[in-house]
Amino acid sequence: MRIAITGVTGSIGTQALEVLEFLREKDYEFELVGVSAGSNKEKMIEIIKKWKPEYAALENVELESFNKTKILTGIDSTIEMLEKSKPDFVLVATGGAIGIKHTLKAIEVSKRIGLANKESIVCGGNMLLEYAKENNTEIIPVDSEHSALFQLKLGDIKPSKIIITASGGALRDWPIDKLNEVTVKDVLNHPVWSMGKRITVDSATMVNKGLEVIEAYHLFNLKKEDIDVLINRNSHIHAIVGYPDGVMKFHYGVPSMKIPIAYSITYPERIYEYEFPDLTLEPIKFERVDYNRYPALKLAFDILGNQLLQIVYNAADEVAVQLFLEGKIKYTEIYKLIYQSIDEFINKNIEINEFSDIILTDEKVKNFVKGMVL
Ligand SMILES: NC(=O)c1ccc[n+]([C@@H]2O[C@H](COP(=O)([O-])OP(=O)(O)OC[C@H]3O[C@@H](n4cnc5c(N)ncnc54)[C@H](OP(=O)(O)O)[C@@H]3O)[C@@H](O)[C@H]2O)c1
User: Fold this and answer.
1) pTM score, whole prediction
2) No. of H helices and E strands in the chain?
3) Ligand 1, atom 5: nearest CA belongs to which residue?
4) Is the N or C terminus of the chain more exposed, i.e. has fewer CB atoms within 10 Å?
C-alpha cells in the first residue's frame, strides 16, 4: 500500500510515523510515498532522511534538495505531492481549515482516507461526504470518538442515541469566575491527552467537542436530539451508542491516538498492538456538562447543520486560539469572539455552493476576528 501523510510534522503526523514503524516490524506491506507540512523545516528534514519518501512538500518555507526525495514547496505543494505520489491511502493530519483542500485532493487521488482533520467535515459537511461518495473513496475517521463510533456501528442497526465523551480539558476544576485569569501554560496542561496546541486549548473551551459533535452529525447522519456529550475524566470511554431497547455499547480503550490512527491504516484488520487497560483500577464514571463553563459547546449544538455557521464557528476559533496563544486576548475572549462572529455572519447572505465558497468564507471570518482585536 502506498501511503501519504499531510501534516506529518504535527502531533498526529508524528504518532502516525511511530505507528508505521511498528507496522514495518510486523511486516505489514506499505511504502511511505509522500509527506507534507507547513513550516517545520528541521522536523521535515529528519523525516525525509529517515523515511526517504518519493515526494515531500513544505508549504511555507524553502527546503534544500535531497537525493531520493523530490522536494516541493509553496502553497499548494501538498496538492502537488498528493497528485504525484499516487497514494492508495492518505492520512490527512493537517491542522486547521486549510486541511479541507488536502482532504478534497486526497478524495480525488486515493481510494481510502484516514481523516484526522476534523475541520474538513465541519466546514465541508455533507458536500464533502457526497464528493467522497462520487469518487468512491472511503473515509475512515481518526478522531478517537469518531473512530470509536465507526467501530461501534459496524454492521449494526442504526442506534437511536450517540454519546460522545469529553475529558473536560485542563480547566475542568477551575472556579468559573477565575477563568478570565488563566494563562496559556494553565490551558496547555491537559490532564489526559498530549496533542497539538490548538486542540489542547479547544479541549479546555470544549470547542473541540463542539467540532466533534458537528463532525459526528455529518459523518453518521444523525439527528441533533440523538447526540449527547458526557464528561469521562480519564478518557477511557471514547463513545457510546444506544438502542431503542435500552442497550448501550461502550467503546473502551486507553487514550492513545496511535490506536485510531493504526486502525484507519489497517482497517478492517487490527494489526497494531497495545496493552489492555486494567479494568479493576478505575470505576467507569460520567458527569454532565455544565454549559456555563463550556458555552462554546452549547453554541455548537445551536448551529448544528448550518454549514455557513459551522465554517464561521471553526474559523473564528482558529484565529481566537492563535491570538490567545500569542498573549493578545484573554482565555474567556475566545468564546466571545466566536459568538460575535456568528452574530456578524448569521444574517449575511452568503451561500455555500462550491468548495471555493468555504475557503472564501473561512478567510472573511478570520479577517473579521483579526479586525476585532488587532
Ligand atoms: N492531536 C490530536 O490528538 C488530535 C486528535 C484528534 C484529531 N486531531 C485533529 O488532527 C489535526 C491535526 O492536529 P495536531 O494536533 O496534529 O496539530 P499540530 O500538532 O498543530 O500539527 C498540524 C500539522 O499541520 C501542518 N500544517 C499546517 N499548515 C499546513 C499547510 N498549509 N500545509 C501543510 N501542512 C500544514 C503542520 O505543519 P508545521 O508544523 O510544519 O507548520 C503540522 O504538521 C487537527 O485537525 C486536529 O483537530 C488531532
Assistant:
1) 0.97
2) 14, 12
3) 143
4) C
